[in-house]
Every structure is written in C-alpha cells, then in structure tokens.
Amino acid sequence: MEEWTQKDKIMKSTYFPAFYAVVISVSPFITIVCANMAMFQPLRTRLDFLLANNDISYDEHSHITNDFSSDEILDAAMNDHDDHSTVPPLSIEIVNTFIQWLNKEVDQNSLTQDTADLIINIFNLYPPDIAEVNLHSSSSLNGPAPVNYTNNGVVKLFARSDFTPDSEYNGIWGYRVGSREYALQCNRIGLNILDVTSDTIVKVQTIPMPGGKYWRDVATYSNFAYVAAQSGGNAWVIDLSELSSVKPHTEGSNPIGSEQIKDFGYTNWGHTLNAWNDLLFLNSARMGDGCKIFDLLDDPMNPREIMNYTFGECHDSYVQTINSTDILITSDGYAKKWRLYNITDIRSSGFQFSRLGQTPSINGSTYSHQSVLSTDGSTLFVFDEFNNFDIGVYDISNFTNPRLIRQFQWSEDGTTNARVHNGFIRGKYLMVAYYEVGLRVFDISDVSSGISEVGKYETYRDPDGNGSFIHNATEGYNGTWNVYAGLPSGKVLVSDYNYGTFVVTIDVSSQFVPTSYPTTRPTNLPTSSPTESPTKSPTSFPTASPTKSPTSTPTSSSSNSPTSSPTTSPTKSFTSSPTASPTKPPNSSSTTSPTNSLTASPVTSSNNLPTSSLAPPIMEPSTSSSTTNGIESYNSYTFMSIVVLSYLLYL
C-alpha cells in the first residue's frame, strides 16, 4: 500500500510544486478558485480556537486574518443545510501564496502537518476541477462498487410513512419491547414514536421539542431514549417503559406521560449523539467543544457528565469493545481524521484521553463525518460528507497504525455524483444513507478482494417505488439521512429528510454472484463426500497398507499381496485422477467400491477437512512410478495363480 503513503504526504510531496507551477501559468484565465465551506462555525472562531490552543502563534493568526482573508470571509455563518455558507471566494493568486506560506511554516516547524492540513481544509485551498487529485478517481482501490442485481436487489420495502410532510426528518433509531417494534423518528418538531411491527405504521406519539430544524438525533440505552439537537435545541431523556410489549397502541394514544420526559439542558450540543452501553455522547461538531460524555449507569433519567473530549470537532462518535478494550472512534470533521482512543477506564478518577492512533492524511477537501466498525472490530468504515472519496475502509488490527485498504462509492458514481451521509453494519452488509440516491447496501464480507453493491431503495428520487424518478441527484443534502439496522426482526429503519420513514427488509436468502470477485475460496467446508471423481493426479498417497484383504477390487493401493482372488471385476473404469491428495492416511481401507465415480474435487482446500467422514480419493492403477508397489502386488498375485493352476493340472 505504498502508493497511499505517498499520496497522503500532500504538503511534502513533489506534486504540489509542479501543480502550483501549472496554477500560476493558468491563473490569468481563472478568476476565482476557492470558497469556504464553514460548517457550524465561522472561520474566525476556528482560528481563535487554534490560537487559544497554541496550535498557531499570534503572528500566524494575524497573518492569516489580515493578509489572506477578510472580515466578510472570516465571519460568514452557515445559512442552511444545503448552502453551508455564502463566502466570497479566494483568488488563485492568494491561494498560491497561502499554500506556499503554510509549506514554509511546516518546514520551519512553526506549524504541525495536521494543523496545516486543517487550515487548508477549512479555507478550501484545493486545486480547481481541472487538476483535482483524488476526487473519485477510478482504480482497483478507489472507484464505484460493482453491482450485480436487478430491481432493488436484497432490499424489500416493508412499510413507509410520511406522517408530517415537510417537517425535515433527521435522526432515527429502533426500540423493541416484547413482540412490538418501534421506530424513534426525529424531525424539526421533536421525537415521533412509530409502531413498525406490522406493515401499517402507526404514529403512537409525538413529543414536541424546540430547535432541531436541521439536526436532531436519537439513541437508546435500556428502556430510555436520548434525544439532542442544535438550532436552539436541548438534550432530552424519555422513559419508554409505558410502550406496549404486546397489544398495539392506537394512533396518537400518547402512552408516555410528562413525568417520563425530561429536558436536561445542554443547548446546541446535539449535532449527533451516541449511546453505548451505559455511556452517552453528545457530539457538537465544533472546534473547542468536541463531545461531552455522560454516565448513565446510576440514574439513566439524570445523565451525569464525566468527561469532555476537546481534541477534535467530534462530529460523531462510535464505541466498540475490541479484545476487551473499549475503543472510542471520533469523526473529527475538518481535521480529515478518524481518531482512536482507549476509554476502558473512563470512570477512573485520573482518566485522560490518550490517542492510540488516527487515520493517515487524505488528499482533497474532506469532512470526517461518521464511522462504523465491522463486527469483529478489525475493519473501520469511514464516511466523507464533502464528496471527495465517499467511503474509506481501514484495517485497524493495529490501533496505532490504521492502514487504508480501499475507497469506494455507490455503483453509478461514475455517471451520477452523490454525497454520502451515515452507515450501519449488520453481519456482512454495510447499509448506507446516501442522501439523494437513497439507501445503498454493500456486501463487505471480503473487503480485501472487493466490495459489491447488492441492494438499494430510492427514498428520494423514487419514494413511491414505481420506477419513476421525481428528483435528480445534484450532490445536495436531500434524501436519505440515517439508517438503523439493529432491530431483532431484521427490519431496517431508514429516515429520508424529505419523505419520512421507510421500513425495509434484507433478503438474506438471495444469491448474488459478483462479476469479478471474490477470488478466495469459500470458508465453509463440504458436509458430505464428493460424488464424482477428481480430474487431476494426487500428489501423495496413504502410507499405511490395508489391514484386511478386500472382497472386491481394491479401492486403494497396497504393498501386500491379497490372499485370494477377487470374485468380481470392476464395473466401471476410471477416466481421471483426483485433484488433491488426502492430508493423512485412512484409518482403514474401504471394503466396497463406491457407487459413483468421482469427477470433481471439493471446492475447499484439503488441508482442513470437515469432521464428518470424508473418504480419501479412489486411485486408479497407472504406470506412474508413484504406483509401482500396487502394480507389483497385482503381478505377484497373477503369477501365483498360474503356478497353482499348473500344479493342479499336473496332478
């Protein structure tokens, strides 16, 4: 993977000097090149934090604000979800000078490489389209996932509900009690509790909450739901114990009373949230704020703040126990990093965050938005909301050195570009909320060989599922927002920003044959002996002789002569040899011939045989040197028969 290492060194590589020489030569023909995408915080606020954190000096802060920027650029705020900010762009001349200055500061050890990368990203100091380096480049390790399905593939629509049109649906989670399953669907109004047990979705209750115009999120711990928001929204806890476990609630029955609903403050701290085991994470997506961590163990209705992670923006957080270690992964936004921390002892009085590792540098405008881990914890899937590479796959078996395996996009990305948002893993499937191109499902069972797209549902372009698109994909932020696949029934809950709640199922019985991979052997061994003979000669033979004389034609070679002649002849000649040899000698020889000749070998390697009986291949006598003992035994038997017959005739 050396090519990735070289690409990641964007500030030190030989590419940039050459590129900026090209930029200078074409700059008379390019009026503007860059505009800031200042999500959630103005640029001045971000620079002030870098100064307060000693990441940049006072002189560097002044140079950036006075010589490379303006008040209009520095103080621009985010207008809405689709148009992150309206900022005057920087000219190509300023961009070039800015980059050269940053290079110099890094060379003189006045800035770290990470800080320089962050400044480049927040000011969007990247090449124009004519020279972009990493944007959805097509290669064996970066490109659209191959697809081999018709219609919606493994995805089947179970139910849908646009219960409050134009209410800006956002976060979603699932909750099950007894035989009933619920979707916890957020929107601008608050939290909506939907019964999704049957294919007729029933809105049981809406709990109004201020704020949350664009961002509101939800997760559960035990029988408690936690909701948080921005745009003036607070954090809430709801006791779900009054939801029925058997009998369905009626529409608008409102079983949860006011005494079971609590606003516990933390205004604007819930851009996203995460509840894991007995910890709650409120993620701010802001430099300097990071995420606040709460203990839920003692009193879930009254979360107790225990830590504040401030080493990154923490747009999102994810925790999983890997080999008895609780690993926190932060998606740190403009830093273009996903960082790993050991939080096993987070309740200890002397606990401090100590970073285990982080993903390597990435070329191009990138926003570290979210991440999920494979079930075994060895593979990290990351999501870039700035539409640079979309989805990255990392081997994190060594926490200190995450290694990039590949990057990929949805199957039609080569012709129709779309942004990615969030993902959820269940088994071998990665289910992705892919904004305007809906839910996309990928088979991640062998990430080294490749990743294939195996299903979809167009929640935005074709919400009615009739095959007719009512929208186009425009690289915008409409469409599928979140996906939750943790319900025991296997139902998958999908939130579409524009069209509400979709419930789908994944048809795990479907058989899909990728067009180009996998290239590795199946992991499951055969459960019975092969019924047809192999086609290649074995490489070795059993080393032990049979313990009993055969009653019919021998099924394996023997070094001892039989004591009596066979009573029958073989009924069928063998036309081919086995493809693989047995790995250990048989316990005893077969006493009867098989009923069918073998013509094909098992698909699995013979060095790991199943525990059930798998007889060694039947070997046909041949003239090869490896079967000399068998031929000599047969010739000896024939000679003795002639001698005995001659003696009897003589008598």
Assign the CATH class of the largest domain. Mainly Beta
- At the fourth level of CATH, the homologous superfamily of the largest domain is YVTN repeat-like/Quinoprotein amine dehydrogenase
Mean pLDDT: 79
C-alpha geometry? globular
Low-confidence stretches: 1-33, 129-136, 511-639, 642-650
Helix content: 10-25%
For the secondary structure, the number of strands is 29
Radius of gyration using CA atoms only: 33 Å
CATH domain topology of the largest domain: Methylamine Dehydrogenase, Chain H
Number of helices: 8
Keywords:
4-stranded antiparallel β-sheet; 8 helices; single chain; 29 strands; 2 domains; disordered N terminus; 651 residues
How would you summarize the topology of this molecule?
Elements (H helix, E strand, L loop, with lengths): L1 H7 L6 H12 L16 H10 L5 H10 L3 H4 L17 H16 L5 H10 L19 E3 L10 E7 L10 E6 L2 E7 L3 E6 L6 E7 L7 E6 L2 E6 L6 E4 L21 E3 L8 E5 L2 E5 L7 E5 L8 E6 L6 E7 L2 E7 L6 E5 L12 E4 L9 E6 L5 E6 L6 E5 L7 E7 L12 E5 L2 E5 L5 E5 L8 E6 L22 E5 L7 E5 L3 E7 L121 H23 L1
Parallel strand pairs: 1-22
Antiparallel strand pairs: 2-29, 3-4, 4-5, 5-6, 7-8, 8-9, 9-10, 11-12, 12-13, 13-14, 15-16, 16-17, 17-18, 19-20, 20-21, 21-22, 23-24, 24-25, 25-26, 27-28, 28-29
